[in-house]
Specification:
The chain is globular and about 50 Å long. A hairpin with a 2-residue loop joins strand 2 and strand 3. By secondary structure, it is mainly β. It has a six-stranded antiparallel beta barrel with strand order 1-2-3-6-5-4.
Length: about 110
Amino acid sequence: MRAGKLDKRLTIVRFVETGRDGANQPIYGWSDVATLWAQARPVRGEERFQAQQLAGTEVMTFHIRYRADLTVKDRIRFKGKEWDITAVREIGRGVVSEFDCQARAE
């Protein structure tokens, strides 16, 4: 992948144990894993009425340099929004990770 196409910044966040409480029970939260350069391509957006409110979604496809640890359990923080990863694909032999994400439009 050409470096010039990686022109957007995003952060991978993961749900991990962040500490222990007074009863030694684990405390979980979202923690930053890595901040990377990526290529972002909007796929589609849609709006519909849900529970008598207008609800919209945005779908984007991102390309980053290959990461073996990226899963659908992770999230992406991009342009101030949290994006849920819905699919992860490897392009080439460990060259590029492509993943689809969905965010709620405001």
